[in-house]
Amino acid sequence: MVQMIYTIIMYAMQIYYYLLFISVLVTWFPDIQRTAVGRILFKLTEPYFGIFRRFIPAVRLGGGYMDFSPIVALIVWRMFVVSGVSWLLVKVLT
After folding, report:
1. What distance in Å separates the CA atoms of residue 54 and residue 46, rounded to the nearest whole number?
2. Which of 3, 38, 77, 93 is the most exposed place for a label (fewest CB within 10 A)?
3. CA 72 to CA 78: how far, in whole Å?
4. 25: domain range?
5. What are the percentages of helix, strand and coil residues in the chain, rounded to 5?
6. Positions of E strands within the chain
7. Total domains, the chain
8. For residues 70 and 49, what is the distance between their CA atoms, to the nearest angstrom?
C-alpha cells in the first residue's frame, strides 16, 4: 500500500513535469496558446512558472525579450522538487 502511494505521487509529479515542458514548447507557437488546450495548459502551469517570473526578469535580446524563468523552473522541478518530495515521502511512509 505504501509503495502504491509513493508510485502514484511520483507519477503525478512526472506528469506535471511533462505539462511544464509542453507549456514551454507551446510558447513558441502562439496559435496553440489561443486554443482551449493552450489555455488549460497555461492555467495548470502558470502558478508554478509565476513564482520564477517574479524573481527572474526577461533578458533583452536584439529586438525582443527572452524569458529564462521557465528553464530555471524546469531544472528546479526536476532536481529539487521531485527529489525533495521523494525523500519526504520515504521518511513519512516508512
Report:
1. 12
2. 3
3. 10
4. 2-93
5. 80, 5, 15
6. 59-61, 64-66
7. 1
8. 6
Residue 21 near residue 78 (C-beta atoms within 8 A): no
Q: CA 43, CA 12: separation in Å to the nearest integer?
A: 17
Segment 36-72, tens digit of pLDDT: 999 999 999 999 999 999 999 989 888 888 889 999 9
pTM value surpassing 0.90:
no
HSE of 46, CA atoms in CB hemisphere, 13 A: 9
End-to-end CA distance of the chain: 11
Beta bridge partners of 61: 64
Neighbours of 82 (CB within 10 A): 16
pLDDT at 62: 84
- What's the confidence (pLDDT) of residue 3? 87
- The type of residue at 78 is R
